[in-house]
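Quick one, T. Sequence first:
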Amino acid sequence: MSRNAQEELLGFSFADGWFLLLVPLLLLLWLLIARRRLPALGVASVALFSDLPSGWRVRLAQLPLHLSALALLALSLAIARPQKLDRIPVESEGIDILLVLDLSSTMAERDMDAGGERSRLEIAKAVARDFVQRRDGDRIGLVSFALFPDLVCPATLDHQALDRFLRPLKHKAQRSPENRTGIGAGLALAVRQLEESESPGKVVILLTDGMENVNAITPEDAAKLAKKAGVRVYTIGAGGQGAGQGLFSLARSTDFSVLREIAEATKGQFFEAGDAEALGRIFDEIDQLERVELLDRLYRAEERFLPFLLSGAGLLFLALLLRATVLLAWP
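Structure tokens:
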């Protein structure tokens, strides 16, 4: 039985568990001795003494034997070193991740949902939320962009707080003056948040369904900033198949070549998601690609052998005391 199983079953585990092999041997020896009754007086037949009253000394004659057996059992458990393992909390070095989401009006299209009920943005948020919940130990933040980039939530270990910022995100209205796609500016803002980080890994996951049409900062320049800062960028082109079902669907196919170039320049990867299932698989793959090797769990061992040792010693002393005094057997 593993030590973890022992902990769950007993509340403690044994460091030198092989000493427990002594327990069945001691029990067997105890049974053999208990069954064997040495005569105190040699007679032809015990029937001669059948009518004699038996006192409490006779009834308790084997008590020292039983106490000795229990003492040896307790001592066997003591030398097996029972311990209580307390896990030592270790601050794991996770990585820093910034999600960068497009909020332009085309994210309202419903072409990625087989039932036509959820928009691209709703699907992206649902998949991103699931991804965040799996990233224990990582600091994750959120940047959105349309005409202007916006730091919605700085990188944080409080994933519930991030979720509260992520859920209410809305796409821009089609006629809004902010309804543009500033990929370069969004990526540049994310890189600025990560460039001072001392994390062993700095990652941006950028999702958009369109092409750059702001150029305040070009995607190429933003990619150079990311490369210089050591930020790896995973880019995801969502939809863009010309099969939109929503009010703002476009009868065209989106050119994601810029996204490929950003990923290649920063040693990331480019993905294209035509539907919700594909987007889920992409985030699963990124989740596996960006895993840091965690340290082995550390435990503090609290020795629990003393109660068994004292019990065994006490029982053995009591057995010897009884055998030498009130239960003394005369030859």
